[in-house]
């Protein structure tokens, strides 16, 4: 990408983060997948583990320009979330070289698109159990030539998986190594670089943690684009009201409430994104705290994206079902982000559990008297009491606490997002809508604890959204994504006319060129 340097990737500069919120990434999910693998996982890992090596420096130059393709081979068919138990082995040989081997079907690397394409060579960072004299010494990263762009390297095989449903096709593969001998230089990092095998593994996976925040950032433009498309359609689509007058459907509460809610998320989560980055790149903070903030961001972003896109697609009626109007396509593309670079549920379980047993804490609230803050504090107090009584490895913890870990993580994230939006001057109406939406999910709790009744909540809904509606049109334009949605026919009368004119037209004079429709 023009303007993005190796230093930007290594240092996590503002350019690096800006790349991941560029609306162009939503145009092609496959290209975005390959881009983030290449730059964040491969180049990012090589800059850390291959520092000072001239051969790595030259390789990085080719990776930056895509002269060489790069893949990141960590998870296996039988080991995803438990990657620390992966089975691929790298056995040290007497001459100092290594032999990489896949001992079983479940040990094959799962997902990385390793098959030859474009006639360009492809390298892979492959994680394997280091075996020395029959003893496993922990997981290490190795750099291999996977293929030359035409054929797989000797001893390496890749089976092409079928495409993910509803997304742009990526050549996801199942990759196996059959006693592949590689030189000593294939090992990334020093042989005895770490005093702890576990710590060495975690440090080598630093860029996966970066990816949890970076990939989640792509959800922000997806929400912004979908909000713009649905908003513009709702402003131009008209129906007869009870008096027979044609009115835009945006005037109905069932239409403008979801559009305004998505708008609120677009603005508030942009502020939360900046807040999360600030904490994540702060080297003075505990490593676990930085990743905890990233987990909160991912949880809140996924919730907002899934709900907003599905609801907005529905509110566009039949038009929302078509891929050419983009919203449904964005929804399908974004689903994978919940799994990539750390399943959000597992990240939440780890975060909430460690907070409950007081291993560390995340940045605390600024507004201690806010509803979102009160909810966060009370539910953590409740589940901490259960944890103290039964222990975090008890059946009671598994049945009573684990199912609520995602909710706890979202509670922290909602409070952080709210405070970030207030601090950055997001319009008050949009901040109120964001908080209102978060409260709605746990309305029974707020009513039970006497903070508001269901009737009061309903009245506040009417007040908040009616006051925000007059500004909806201007806020939509403030998203500044119009150039990226021109291909969606429903955004304007002009784009719809162009779209219809390009469709195959069947008339009574088309009999001679009838098509098979089965």
UniProtKB/TrEMBL annotation:
One of its GO terms (cellular component) is peroxisome. Signal peptide: none annotated. One of its GO terms (molecular function) is acyl-CoA oxidase activity. It comes from the Eukaryota. One of its GO terms (biological process) is fatty acid beta-oxidation using acyl-CoA oxidase. InterPro entries: ACOX_C_alpha1, Acyl-CoA_Oxase/DH_mid-dom_sf, Acyl-CoA_oxidase, AcylCo_DH-like_C, AcylCoA_DH/oxidase_NM_dom_sf. It holds the Pfam family ACOX_C_alpha1. This is Acyl-CoA dehydrogenase NM domain-like protein. Residues 225-353 form the Acyl-CoA oxidase C-alpha1 domain.
């Amino acid at each position: 990408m023009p303007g993005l340097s190796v230093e930007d990737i290594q240092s996590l500069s503002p350019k690096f983060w800006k790349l991941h919120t560029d609306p162009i990434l939503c145009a092609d999910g496959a290209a975005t997948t390959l881009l983030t693998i290449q730059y964040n996982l491969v180049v990012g890992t090589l800059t850390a583990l291959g520092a000072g090596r001239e051969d790595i420096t030259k390789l990085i130059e080719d990776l930056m320009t895509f002269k060489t393709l790069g893949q990141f081979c960590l998870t296996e068919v039988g080991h995803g979330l438990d990657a620390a138990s992966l089975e691929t082995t790298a056995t040290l040989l007497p001459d100092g070289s290594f032999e990489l081997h896949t001992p079983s079907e479940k040990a094959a690397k799962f997902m990385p698109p390793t098959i030859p394409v474009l006639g360009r060579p492809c390298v892979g960072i492959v994680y394997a159990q280091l075996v020395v004299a029959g003893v496993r010494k922990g997981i290490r990263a190795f750099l291999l030539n996977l293929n030359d762009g035409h054929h797989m390297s000797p001893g390496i095989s890749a089976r092409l998986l079928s495409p993910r449903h509803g997304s742009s096709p990526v050549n996801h593969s199942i990759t196996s190594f059959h006693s592949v001998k590689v030189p000593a230089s294939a090992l990334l990092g020093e042989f005895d670089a770490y005093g702890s095998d576990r710590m060495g593994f975690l440090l080598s996976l630093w860029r996966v943690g970066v990816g949890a925040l970076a990939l989640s950032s792509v959800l922000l433009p997806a929400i912004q684009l979908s909000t713009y498309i649905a908003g513009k359609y709702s402003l131009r689509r008209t129906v007869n009201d009870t008096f027979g007058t044609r009115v835009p459907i945006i005037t109905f509460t069932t239409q403008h409430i979801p559009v305004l809610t998505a708008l609120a998320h677009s603005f508030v989560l942009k502020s939360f994104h900046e807040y999360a980055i600030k904490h994540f790149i702060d080297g003075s903070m505990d490593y676990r705290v930085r990743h905890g903030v990233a987990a909160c961001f991912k949880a809140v972003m996924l919730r907002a994206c899934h709900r907003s896109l599905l609801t907005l697609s529905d509110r566009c009626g039949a038009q929302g079902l078509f891929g050419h109007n983009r919203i449904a396509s964005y929804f399908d593309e974004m689903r994978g982000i919940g799994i990539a670079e750390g399943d959000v549920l597992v990240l939440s379980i780890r975060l909430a559990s460690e907070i409950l047993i007081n291993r560390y804490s995340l940045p605390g609230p600024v507004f201690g008297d806010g509803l979102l803050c009160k909810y966060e504090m009370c539910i953590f107090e409740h589940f901490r009491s259960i944890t103290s009584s039964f222990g975090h490895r008890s059946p009671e913890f598994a049945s009573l606490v684990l199912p609520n870990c995602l909710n706890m993580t979202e509670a922290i994230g909602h409070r952080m997002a709210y405070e970030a939006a207030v601090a950055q001057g997001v319009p008050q109406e949009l901040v109120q809508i964001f908080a209102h939406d978060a409260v709605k999910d746990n309305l029974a709790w707020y009513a039970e604890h006497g903070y508001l009744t269901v009737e009061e909540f309903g009245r506040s809904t009417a007040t908040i959204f009616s006051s925000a509606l007059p500004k909806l049109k201007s806020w939509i334009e403030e998203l500044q994504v119009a150039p990226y949605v021109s291909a969606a026919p429903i955004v304007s009368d002009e784009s719809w006319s162009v779209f219809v004119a390009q469709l195959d037209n069947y008339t009574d004079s088309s009999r001679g060129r009838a098509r098979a429709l089965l």
